[in-house]
Write a structure and sequence with these properties.
Largest sheet: 7 strands, mixed
Order of helices and strands: EHHEEEHEHEE
Helix content: 25-40%
Low-confidence stretches: none
Strand content: 25-35%
Structural class: alpha+beta
CATH architecture: 3-Layer(aba) Sandwich
Distance between the termini: 34 Å
CATH superfamily: Gcn5-related N-acetyltransferase (GNAT)
Number of strands: 7
Strand order of the largest sheet: 1-2-3-4-5-7-6
Number of domains: 1
CATH class: Alpha Beta
Number of helices: 4
Mean pLDDT: 95
Shape: globular
Oligomer: single chain
Length: about 150
């Protein structure tokens, strides 16, 4: 594997359900979304759903929910298979999702212990605005981050 594989970003759909399940399980062993939520993110209209592929293999995914009535976009999930991390794929997915949501404020939550994800978000201009106590499985706090575009 090269340090910078060629990847492409494209809309995700229902046919991506099994690869998305694999990404969720690999990236979030305690918090992988249940099947119903994965189906929802892939089929509900007005949600941003972008996949990253290396060759024909789906290696990353980002979901976004532009809540226009609140004036806020939420990054609902962002994951890249471990063997493809630190290659710019998560950054590209995040940037594309922010752009497609078209909101002036974007928020997300991240586990307090997930330092690598926090590093990505802070370098992309996010700032911590809140802590949701016990938000994640196992009682770990969720840090709420926000970026003004």
């Amino acid at each position: 594997m090269t340090n910078n594989p060629e990847y492409k970003l494209s809309p995700a759909g229902l046919s991506d359900l099994n690869p998305l399940r694999a990404i969720e399980k690999a990236c979030f062993p305690l918090d992988a979304w249940p099947l119903l939520e994965l189906l929802s993110v892939l089929i509900l209209p007005n949600l941003v759903k972008i996949k990253a592929e290396v060759g024909e293999k789906m290696v990353g995914f980002v979901g976004g929910d532009a809540r226009r009535f609140e004036g806020v976009g939420w990054i609902t999930t962002l994951g890249v298979l471990p063997q493809y991390q630190r290659m710019g794929i998560a950054t590209a997915l995040l940037d594309q999702c922010e752009q497609q949501m078209g909101m002036s404020v974007v928020k997300l939550t991240v586990r307090r212990s997930n330092i690598s994800a926090q590093t990505l978000y802070y370098t992309r201009g996010y700032q911590q605005i809140d802590v949701w106590k016990g938000y994640y499985e196992g009682g770990e706090d969720g840090l709420v981050l926000q970026k003004k575009l």
